[in-house]
Amino acid sequence: MKLHVQIQRSSGKTDHFEVSYGPEMTVLNILEEIYRHHDATIAYRYSCRTGLCTTCLMMINGKPELSCQKIVETDDEGILTLAPLPKGETIKDLVKEM
Amino acid sequence: MELRQTDILVIGSGAAGLSSAVYAAQSNQHVLVLDKGVIGRSGSSTGAVQIAALGEWSNEDHKDSYLKDIDESGRGLSESSLMEALAEDISDRLKDLTEWGLKLDRNKDKQIAVSHTSGHSLPRSVSAKKGKTGLGILHTLRKKANASDHIETWNDVITIDLIKNGNRVVGAFVLDLKDHQPYLIQCKSVILATGGAGQLYPTTSNPVQSTSDGFSLGLSAGANLVDMEQVQFYPVSMVAPNSIAGFCISFYHYSKLYNSNGSRFMENYEPKQLEDTTRDKLAIAIATEVADGRGTENGGVWLDAADEIDQVKKEFPHEYKLCHERGIDFANNRAEIGPAAHFMMGGVQINEHGATEIPGLYVAGETAGGLHGGNRLGNNALSDCIVFGARAGISSAKEADELSSMPEVNDSMLLTAQQQIEQILTPINGEIRPYQLKEQIQTIMGQHVGVIRTNQGLKIAKEQLDEVETQMRDMTILNTEPYSREILDSIEARHMLRTAKAIVGSAIIRKESRGAHHNTDHPSLASSTYHTVANSHNGELSFSIASVQGGESK
Ligand SMILES: Cc1cc2nc3c(=O)[nH]c(=O)nc-3n(C[C@H](O)[C@H](O)[C@H](O)COP(=O)(O)OP(=O)(O)OC[C@H]3O[C@@H](n4cnc5c(N)ncnc54)[C@H](O)[C@@H]3O)c2cc1C
After folding, report:
1. ipTM, 2 decimals?
2. Which one of B101, B105, B195, B499 counts the least CB within 10 Å of its CB?
3. Best CATH choice for the domain A2-96 from the list 3.10.20.30, 2.40.480.10, 3.40.630.30, 2.40.70.10
4. Which residues of chain A have a CB within 8 Å of the CB of B243?
5. Which phi and psi (to 5°) does residue B467 adopt?
């Protein structure tokens, strides 16, 4: 299965990726897939992978969610949209100053 | 290369690092705490559920019974001075935390809720924030640190190496990942508190930052690492679904484990204790079932918690809920579980003050070795962090206070660091990406240096790690722009390789099975107890054995 992912980058542009995915993948799993196989420059934070540290918080389809906990869902057009949280300074791509 | 100064440099901001900072700052020394992730949110401390302690709830419990349990569990490898320090200080350190705002969880009768944990002879595990105890402790320490004028914190900064002048550690060489600016931090003492090494294995409960950096930094500074073969595998962690592989299940003492033949196999290994046994024994039993062909499809065994589900929901709500969200409801479903790399019992050798043999170098928390011996008791890691964090903080501040001036950093140190950083930040187009090197190390360690080991497997691991070292010279790093994950991965891969070699070398010289080290070619205990010791001279690792200043256990 392929998933269409759209990511708001800190360069100001929006990038699109077609990523292979399985049913139980989290958004974090998708980002790992992108770093490894599509674009080594993508920047995102995470740590515990169990929903406790909250460092992987980002906008997922327009809502603030933990990428390690969020099982992939797409919008009506079949797209997964990722963006940094709107508040505060963005260090790079999805990474906020904390 | 920029130069920065502080009195005390704390590397790592888990429960150990933040404790040491808070206690060191009580002396009015300037303390700089840095972390390659976010301060107080990037280590294993975040995930800890309970803490073992003595306190007002300890009616029948006292220091001697606690000491006896640690000693027995350590399989003869726990140092008595460290065990004494833990049992002596734990109650006061936890009291400090509650005075600073930590609220311990209470039961229906408004009493502090105390529960039993496998391996402890009496109930002495308490919690905060409804079982998010690590988070609770980190919040309390962060609040305390933020309120201090003497503590400065710094996110997203990775330590590449420690700097020595003669035999003394005089600082660290770090890279700010946000802008790729390198710094040489000059200080009177360094406290290493970088946590564990779970990321050396393919399946781990540990956060992504647990890449064993502190062990590698300790080696490079000339410190001894003791008992590095003693890697605790958390026996009961989720095997499937993949998105929570490695997630720890704390309620195995309320559960029954079955192999693929439907047999409750712990009846054969531990007829009395059954599942409620220590982690080393449980991990070895599960791994043996799987190795002998009685495992599940995904290489685990079945866990059934349905009979005690109310207790599970009450004591471990986070674990219950997370698994439920991923399709496993313990009330109705069995879960596939297996051992995952969890905790490094070995580590940098320290004395009861958290000091190493290298002047200016202190170590606390999971990066330090010698306390937990061959098997850490559940919930003793957080206790370790707050007791030895405080001790390292207080002793390093005292030493800093006694130093008349800042130890010198000279031009040649700056030059070496400058050359090293240029190499790290130069794009190269080789054969292998840094994340692939990390994966190779994980595969080797998982295959040959896991729960069950053999002489042949350890020999293969050593040879294969040497091959990884050769490949490391041929990395591909295309992205050298700030916040490059490739640069971070490449620095971590170097630390991982050095630590992995220390683990394998230590495992090779331990010619017996003790604690978490189970070698089927040396299945029994040796007649004497000894530490394995890893040390590095001019980049070459050497291994030896040393006596244990231990308690009673064998
Ligand atoms: C899921 C889980 C559950 C656990 N449950 C319990 C429990 O219930 N009770 C218990 O007692 N113990 C538990 N443990 C063990 C315990 O949490 C840890 O051993 C302990 O918290 C380690 O604390 P620490 O301060 O030594 O290191 P950590 O909390 O791991 O912190 C280390 C910090 O150092 C930083 N760092 C690492 N390398 C570098 C570098 N090169 N430069 C800069 N910074 C660096 C990391 O980013 C991290 O923030 C659990 C562990 C896990 C993983």
Report:
1. 0.97
2. B101
3. 3.10.20.30
4. 24-26, 29, 71
5. -65, -40
